[in-house]
Amino acid sequence: MHRAARTTRGLAAAALGVLALATGVSALAAAPPLRFVSGPARAPQGGHVDIQVAVRPGNALCTLKVNYANGAAQAGLNATRAVGGRAAWSWDVPLGAAVGRASLLARCTGAGTKKRSLLVVGASAPVRIDVVDKGYTVRNRTQGGADVSYGITLQNRSTTEDALYVTVLTNFVLADGKLIGSATETIASIPAGASYALGSGLRFPGDAPIDRLEVVVQAQKRQPHKLRTPPIENIHLEPSVYDEGFLGGVVGELVNDDPSLILQRATLSAVVLDAAGHIVGGGKGYAFAALPPSTRELFKITSGVTAIPMTQAVSAVVSTVPTWALPNSS
Is the peptide bond before 57 cis (omega within 30 degrees of 0)? Predict the structure, then answer.
């Protein structure tokens, strides 16, 4: 009798299992062969968009067409073959894209087409990067030509967003307002609320009677604040051993104070100050040693600083753009 009861319960469980499987298969069959499964409902001009569709068959070849409110088509959306029943596309909305509803049309072989819309809104205000201070030194060479060392202090005024891909155009202006030269530097990132000491140098084939600097700063992208920079310690100035009376380099120690990450490398930049705290020039360099947590390395910035007389060079400020890595990561 007990055996019969157990057999009856086993048959009932099996029947339920078959029913659940049938229900699952039925639900899968009922799902449309092509549908959008992820993607934003709205995006700003200049914003990034990730779109994904689910498709049957699972390896179908799919295309996506995006037309903005004025009919302009998004370029660069190539056909892609689905993997495991998923196909995806990513793109940046052009800054000049028409505001309004953009139409998205997905088409996959054997699955037909599917439409949806994306609301494009006006670009939000860019991250504000201010020029706090600037300065330069011109050194005329006896053999002809002139070297210019210059430095600029920048400030990210946003307290919530990191500035990314910051381009800095520096114009060297004569007394009559004409330009004698221009230089462009790109800073990979400036954390929210942080300042950045940008230094560099420029060589002219003749005299360089520079009257002032014009600086134009643009942050190409931004992100919610998450960046951090390693500390710089024991900064000091070294005179040149080959060029008496002039600065040879800005020296200091780069420290990895992160408890778990490796400081893989760092871009370094410095501005040099006189006794009154005015910028008299600057330079740039790199640190390449991979630093485990709680380690440090010596660096020396030489590029761009050698036009500065030691009589004017009193102190320096150094900024970094670090590259972090997990232990044992390639």
Answer: yes
